[in-house]
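Hey, can you fold this one?
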Amino acid sequence: MSDITIFPARTVVTMDPSQPEVEAVAVREGKVLAAGSLDECKSWGDHVIDNRFADHVIVPGMIEAHGHTLEGAFSLLPYVGYFDRHRVDGGTSPGIRSYAGLLDKLREVDAETPGSSEPIVVGGFDPIYFENEERLTREHLDQVSMDRPIFVFHASAHLATVNTAMLRLHEITRDATTPGVARDANGEPNGELQEMPAMALASSAFLVIVQIMTDPKALANLGQICANQGITTLCDLASFGLVRPEGQVLMHEVVDQDDFPARIFQRHLHALPGGTSDSASAAEAMVELIAANTDKLRTVGLKVVLDGSIQGFTAKMAWPGYYTGSDHGLWLVAPEQMLDICRPFHERNINIHTHCNGNLTIDLWIDTVEQLIIEHPWLDHRHTVQHCQLTNAAQYRRMAKLGMCANIFSNHIWYWGDQHHDITIGPERARRMDSPAAAERAGVSFSLHSDANVTPLGHLHTMWCAVNRVTPSGRVLGENERISAESALHSVTLGSAYQLHLDDEFGSIECGKAADFSVLEDNPLTVDPMKIKDIGVWGTVIGGVPFEAAHL
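Sure. Predicted structure:
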């Protein structure tokens, strides 16, 4: 039997400038043997032709360079987000558009296990969408139950709202000293817990989340969601291999299986959020994790979280601060500690990606990278600003000179664009936020991301946002900051691979690279730009092995 398989297609978009489109791709031993005409592919010798993609479009495997394994875990939790969201089975979970709808959903979940004292944990909510309602508090949730603890995890993953029963269970009182415990006018906790140290006080709810994160079914669901959305590789930017190395055993057991339909790459946190660790020891431990890499599960670097979320008002903002609302931005790493945390990793040539939503944190991270390079020159570090939401032109110019990259949260234009315009940062800054065009003008290599589970996984949507910059109200948020479909596709293929230091292996369809493909119903480079997000996905090919999307 031949060991060469040839996949003809309606078109193959290669992202190889020497031949941007071809008609077929030949695969051998999990790698691209040839990309070209059907006759050219046949010329390599005995082969099998697989025509299943003959009416489809093949593009390089799309790489989500900032997602989370929580996307799989949250498929096991009730969804209470504002927008409709895809399910692992190919169906759709409807959005919840009112506080009454949220409370009804919580009552429904409670009724599924009557009399239980186990906490109710739901995910995806964000109070910023409910402009005509007061901020969600424990008093709202107390209408569901005064006895059973409730934990409503916000979409940003930076905040949660809990009821009185949860506060009482964990003795979260007016005397709490942990930053982020929000209070009412009388100084009592109002139920909102801002950022990880405060949310972790509700430890019973966190135990539920940890349990589902370590459930093999959650990882299996993550793989299927990747196939459903045409994602061949997901980079988890909150992996716990440095603080919970025992969890790596489960990851390898699930992800390394031949039938797991994705690659998972990991950026590990150096410590649990709100905690500390010896950075030199953590860097040595990461060297050991890298040595244990396999084909489908790899450690690729460090993740540092500097601040919170803009829509949660916990991002660190420079003057003039927030447009409306209360500024309670939080440093999640003390600025004076940043250099000491990063130095041992940089000295070992370990790539670092840093969460920066507010513009104060972007300045700190750029300053840190500059000092790291002065102390220990590394010309190809590719250290990256993650989210990069409010990066201005001057900051992009500095990033370009330092060889830094940007991973841009383009989905914010749709999911929170109107709120950023009207509530959080005002019209001018909103028009230029999350702008890959600004990175492109400055010569900064960039990618796009969904931050799944914060927004749904899927690069056809992140591309659509970057190309059109349309909000739910119909507003074009920054007409001059739109990019071409070609730039958008490059960003989620070669751009993402470059940030991973793996552009020699992934990101384009050319001889010698991994045979990872996204298989689509139409060509994102030729359809009406407003229809990019609606292109159907057949599935993916990982190392030459096809994995079909789930369909109801």
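The mean pLDDT is 95. Let me know if you want another pass with a different chain boundary.
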